[in-house]
Design a protein that fits this description.
Distance between the termini: 89 Å
Low-confidence stretches: none
Radius of gyration: 21 Å
Structural class: mainly alpha
Helix content: 55-70%
Largest sheet: none
Strand content: under 5%
Order of helices and strands: HHHHH
């Protein structure tokens, strides 16, 4: 007797929806931290409010960009240990990784704020 072929099962997503939501929270958290960092009074000594706001929004956008890059690297399994975390079902790891990735942008924006401005 012939055996019927096994039923094709749809592929399982590499990163489930809860991991995406945690990643979204991590990106939002890093953007909020970068915005607050740019708005702090020490960042704007001698500067107009709109310059501080512009720097804060720019910092938040960089945090969003680097946070999503970190999340994408995690979701593709290109970060060391990412595949093991995904296989273990640790969805919260996506949030931590995207938060840390977004906060890494502060190292660049902090360096930009300390650079003395040259007037011609």
């Amino acid at each position: 007797s012939a055996t019927p072929p096994p039923a094709a099962q749809p592929p399982r997503p590499r990163v489930p929806l809860p991991a995406f939501l945690f990643g979204l929270l991590g990106v939002a958290g890093s953007a909020a931290a970068a915005f607050a960092w740019g708005q702090r009074p020490a960042a704007g000594i001698g500067r107009a409010h709109h310059e501080r706001l512009s720097r804060a929004v720019g910092g938040a956008l960089w945090a969003v960009t680097t946070g999503w890059i970190a999340y994408l690297l995690y979701s593709l399994g290109w970060l060391p240990g990412a595949t093991e975390l995904q296989a273990a079902g640790m969805s919260w790891a996506a949030g931590i990784i995207s938060l840390i990735g977004g906060l890494l942008s502060l190292t660049w924006s902090g360096r930009q704020q300390r650079r003395p401005e040259r007037h011609q």
